[in-house]
Amino acid sequence: MSEILRLENINYSYIDGGYEREILKNLSYTFESGKFYTILGPSGSGKTTLLSIIAGLDTPKSGELYFEGENVNKIGLHQYRRNKIAIVFQQYNLIGYLTALENVELAMAETDNPLPKDQKAVAYNLLEKFGIVKTKADRLVGQLSGGEQQRVAIARSLASNVNLIFADEPTGNLDTATEKEIIGVFKELAHDYNKTVIVVTHSDAVSQMSDQRILLNDGVLRDL
Amino acid sequence: MNFLNRAIKNVTRRWSKSVLLLITFLLIGNFVIIGLGISQAATDAKTLTRQKMRAVVDYTVDYDAINKYVNELTDEDEINDFYKNYPSVKIEDVQKILQDPRVKTANAATFLTFYEAPNSTVDFVHLNNSVENDSMGGGQSCYISPDGEEICTEYVNPVFGAKANYFPDMIEFADGEFQIVDGSFYTQEDIDEANNVVLVSEAFAELNGLRVGDTFTISTSSPSELNGYLSQFGVTEDDITMEVEVCGIYRHNKAITPDSENFDYTYPYENYDNVFLMPITYYFKAQLPLSQKQFDYYAELYPEDEYYSDPANRPTLENLQNQNLGQVTILLNDPLEVDAFVEEYNSNVPQFLMLDANNEEFERLSRPLDTLSLYANFIVWLVVINAVVIITLVTALTLKTREYEIGVLLSVGASKLKIVAQFFVELAIVAILGFTLSIVTGSMIANKVGQSVLSYQIESSGVNEENEDDYWVSTPSVWDTDYTTDISLDDFVEGYNVTISPLIIAEIYIVGLGIVLVSILIPSLMIMRFNPKRILMNQN
Fold first, then answer.
1. Interface contact A76, partner B, CB < 8 A
2. Cβ–Cβ gap B412/A105 under 8 Å
3. Cβ contacts of A145 within 8 Å, gap of 6 or more
4. What is the ipTM of this complex?
5. Is B160 in the same domain as B261?
6. How many domains does chain A have?
7. Co-location of B167 and B275 in the same domain
8. Contact B14/A at CB under 8 A
9. Sheet holding A3-16, edge to edge
10. Range of A216's domain?
């Protein structure tokens, strides 16, 4: 399997009450394509900070991040977010005044990646693949259940035709059955579509279903 | 799903927020439309009234400036020198002004009176009023001559009038009050050569069977004057008799009828039917023998007199023609060019001369409209500034509730500029809708509001109070050299009509988009500072 994302000597700290608090310490790790990763760690261990750095939402104090061998700083954070990755959040982060279909189309409109001509049909297909039929796809997302909204969020993450998908506690608000279903989708994405899925989670059950469990503790990553 | 689509969907699907914003823009739009409408109506009313007025400018001696200057002089010699070279309007300067393409013509006309010549073949056009039937004579005046002889002269009213001009055209012809019905106006050559040509009225020509090319005689003095005080100068009948040739026949619109004001007190020479139009130079030429004989008489009588002892002071045609002119009236093609014309020439005219647009009455009567326009513009600015503040606050507050959406858009790679553009388009859509509705509602109420505020403004400004001079100004007279058009408040009120013109509609959209543009600036700065990580991590 080839390398998709490499972290080299990532450090992150912030000033808290006059003292520097180190969150990530000289952290290095390599993620491979076509694998489903879960990052575990106790509260306050820096999971979300790590996710925000590797998702291009924040920058480390020092260290480098490489996407498919190219420095992310060289790609540019905006371009990186736009064309290289997708993020799925615990709160789904869909836009309320748009329908499920339009939320998926939104990602398509923003990316520079090559997409099929009939984007609407592709969006419908994507949604249908994740169990959102056409009648539901045309509804405002507020009219969908939590599980359905998370599926829409996953469909949106795939719509921009990226190979690296991050998810921050994607099943945090879902019941166990839906959680299993969503994780199954992530596995499918990794194994059937050669996407790399990196999920930050508290859930041991979720992590058990991943290809690679990684523990973030004391600012460093360690394979479990 | 580009930013335009997102903006449209946001506006249409969050309709309650959009409706509130729409109402805000509707109210703003109504105020702006009413303000712009009133301001435009005031400007239009002034323009229309100005267009009704004759485009005349007086090129005149600035007596106020002279008085001020002389009052500041302390040296008696300086004062005397100044009066010896008293400022006057020079004909050659006026002729230069006449070359300006904005100028139609000019009047430097003197009104003269004449008597029937002895053995005259022409009669004046009769009005058959009181002065003709009862008292054409006016009593007797007597004085003791230097020879000790009592000389009495019976005063007799002249019967003919003449407007004698320095230029080969007259304002009255240029703006249609007079029309040539036969022949032509006298030429510059006639003026230069002091030819004895006149234009007579159609009525006078008909009464006396005159045609172009015919001649007739008139007299500069009455028989009584000739036999009285003129006899001592040696003035003969030939000296006071002018033989004139008809070069043209004109029609005028100043007919005097029994219904005319002061009909019974109008002397024949005041009736335009009896008024000739002639080159001023010919009159000077005709007057020359009388003037010279008078000078010679006094020069002989008072040989020691400083003035009469100097032969240079003996009247000649040249020095009679170079008399000081106090005022020349210039007619322009376009009334709307008057102010600019006056301003331009006033910076170049010699000291103690000025161009006067005679705008005092216009400015006095247009004051309520000016005030109205000022208030209307003030309201427009006030509303626009308030609108910017309100819309900025609303948008900034809305941003707080849309942080999450902004975070999502940033996380999917939307640029901050596109997000700002989306918010701008959202506001612009609602603004355009609101202002479009306001055009409909504003049109319905602007005229009513406009009329009410104008009435109030006229009432409070006091300009509708009767002007004591109005009566006299409005009475036309052969003596009148005031060519300005009489205007009244009604002219302004008639021209004042608050309508929503395409220009105002364009302005309202420009103002609306301007409000949106300025209102989005501060929220845009806030968006530029947004950190997607902070927004999204806080959400989660």
1. no
2. no
3. none
4. 0.80
5. yes
6. 1
7. yes
8. yes
9. A19-32, A3-16, A62-67, A70-71
10. 36-45+76-223
